[in-house]
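Q: Convert this sequence to structure tokens.
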Amino acid sequence: MKFIVSSSELLKGLLTVSKAIPSKTTEAILEDYLFSLNGDILEVTASDKEITMKTTIAVENKEGDGRIAVPARQLNDLLRELPDQPLTIRTISENQFECAWASGESSLPYFNPDDYPECQTTGPDAVSVEFPAMTLADGISRTIYASSDEDNRPVMNSIFFDISPDSTTLVASDLQKLTCYTADDVKAENPCSFILNKRHAAVIKSIIGKDVESVNVTFDSRTVVFRYDGTVIICCLVVGKYPDYRTIIPQNNSNILKINRTVLLNTVRRISVCSPKASNHIKFDLTPGFIEISAQDLGFEIAAHEKIGCQYEGSDLQIGFKSTHIIEMLSNLSCDEVVMKFADRRRSALMMPSEEDAKSEKVFGIVMPIMVK
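A:
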């Protein structure tokens, strides 16, 4: 097997799929890339068995098709040190291949490609939808923070894709907070859904570039495949039932706060400096025209409070939150004005963009209160 390829194009392709290479593994073959040469196209595969990534690279002057498994770390390190130039790659023995450039060459081992794990695929009952690339990346970015960090609860350590004939909603929750992102430009003929592990979602978000226009998403009950511009990402889905998030969205919270999002965010950040480090508790004290935000850490004898103007319609209310939840939710909104709707000090609060921003801002969240003195 022999071919010539641009060193920079090869490195770009390797780095695209390298996110599927596991940092630790008991299977040495997973530390390799699988090279498959077929005609003038080199397909590069990386996998940890849960996520598999593939990309294609155009090559020249090829001699013979073939497959080899090559060491990922050594090849990445070599290519990083080379300026952009033609690179000749050829097998020179039963277990060695050579990379030759203008002024030098390097020989590296390769391994049996038959030992590389078989790639999963979707079945005949798979559903296919088209996502605008920026919608997919933005939806993941706006929801992933709200998913759980507990690996022993895989359903909650994920993003739920709820697809209907009218729109698609991405949902994430750790049971203390929940966020929903609605994409009106993604639809399916019939209602369908899948649950994507947050680690896989983060990989997808990180590799979708601004030059990508559309991503095809095909999925069945166990596997989802993302395809765009010669790149394929195959992920094992989380198997389970996602909680019915619609039933926990507050419908009749009558105490309504409207305030500039940046002002509220910066105030919470300042006051949270004096909140207890273990709990991050802060308190909202709401009265018509004003909100006072306070925090106190008795152990370190520190406290802070700040009163700011706002639009508030409802009865006087004192309610506590975890400051990190409020900061995360406000940071993942981009609207100018934010609305929070409360029922009482014990029930969840709804956070959403104001009516003026609702058409452009498709995110809303729910946050559970905490009891504070």
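The chain has a mean pLDDT of 94.
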